[in-house]
């Protein structure tokens, strides 16, 4: 745990260098999650943000499927209605369901007018341990080779 301002500055500068080096989009998310200990890992062309064993966000900024660029929120369908009241621009990620149905993952679209405000609010919910955000990923099944 960081205990003084000097260490805070040192940690932030290390985080900033890491984010620039890896070209992680919307890295301001990490600033707003501070002082929580989070881990950022690459995931299928996105950057997954974990807090302990829960994935909380995925950060996406790519040329393909620009409608899915933004901050993805890891949640469950039973929380969509209450989260949409707080984030009117939040929507399902259409490439997962071909636009036919709701998906568990929701996105705060990067091109929405309230993008930054909504992302900051989502970070505040995480900092207050709101149980609507964050999902423990299913364990990966080991690949077995056929003989």
Number of helices, where a helix is a run of at least 4 consecutive DSSP H or I residues: 5
> How many strand segments?
6
Cα(first) to Cα(last) distance is 49 Å
Rg over C-alpha atoms, rounded to the nearest angstrom: 16 Å
Q: Widest sheet: strand order?
A: 1-2-3-4-6-5
Strand/helix succession? HHEEEEHEHEH
Uncertain regions: pLDDT < 50 for 5+ in a row? 1-14
Largest sheet: 6 strands, antiparallel
**Helix content range of the residues, please?**
25-40%
Molecular shape = globular
Beta-strand percent range: 15-25%
From the helix content, strand content and strand pairing, which structural class follows?
alpha+beta
Average pLDDT level: 84
Summarize the structure.
The protein is α+β, with helices and mostly antiparallel strands. It has helices spanning 5-22, 28-33, 80-86, 94-97, 115-127; strands spanning 38-43, 46-51, 54-60, 70-73, 91-92, 106-109.
Task: Outline the fold blueprint.
Elements lengths: L4 H18 L5 H6 L4 E6 L2 E6 L2 E7 L9 E4 L6 H7 L4 E2 L1 H4 L8 E4 L5 H13 L20
Antiparallel strand pairs: 1-2, 2-3, 3-4, 4-6, 5-6
Keywords:
six-stranded antiparallel sheet, alpha+beta, 147 residues, 5 helices, globular
Protein architecture, described:
The chain contains five helices and six strands, in the order H-H-E-E-E-E-H-E-H-E-H. It is an alpha+beta fold and 147 residues long. Helices cover 33% and strands 20% of the residues.
């Amino acid at each position: 745990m960081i205990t003084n301002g000097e260490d805070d500055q040192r940690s932030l500068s290390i985080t900033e260098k890491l984010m620039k080096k890896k070209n992680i989009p919307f890295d301001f998310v990490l600033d707003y999650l501070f002082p929580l200990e989070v881990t950022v890992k690459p995931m299928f062309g996105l950057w997954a943000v974990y807090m302990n064993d829960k994935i909380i966000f995925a950060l996406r900024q790519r040329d393909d499927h620009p409608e899915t660029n933004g901050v993805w929120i890891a949640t469950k369908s039973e929380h969509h209605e209450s989260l949409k009241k707080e984030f009117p621009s939040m929507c399902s990620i259409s490439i997962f369901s071909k636009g036919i149905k709701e998906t568990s993952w929701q996105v705060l679209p990067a091109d929405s007018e309230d993008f930054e405000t909504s992302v900051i609010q989502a970070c505040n919910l995480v900092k207050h341990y709101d149980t609507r955000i964050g999902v423990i990923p299913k364990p990966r099944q080991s690949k077995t080779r056929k003989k």
